[in-house]
Amino acid sequence: KAEGQSAPQADRKDQLTAEQNQEMQKRLARLKKENRIQMSFAKEYGKQAEASQQRDYERRVAHVQAAFKKVAAANSSEGLSLATVLGSARLPVPLLVAFSLSLLATVVFRRRTDAKA
Known about the structure:
Blueprint: H1 7-15, H2 18-43, H3 47-76, H4 82-86, H5 93-116
């Protein structure tokens, strides 16, 4: 079992091929990097924005982990293709952009409303 990993994560890692494990690590690293960037923006808008971004990050990590759990299960049973199982785990970049824009619009609207009051 690798340090810092729960038993299910370590077991899943053992059931993935080297290529699949590398792909999972790459996707999780990309999510972490994107989260760091988004959190730097969210901090400017307060605790609620930070909490929202953290929930979004955790949801996306869980989605990737669930997809690779399916891959590990497929490896141990029949062997579905990595592309087939992971097709649904692609990161929705337009969703990330939409979230950022909606967060910005909300903050700008609140500042304008507060300034008028």
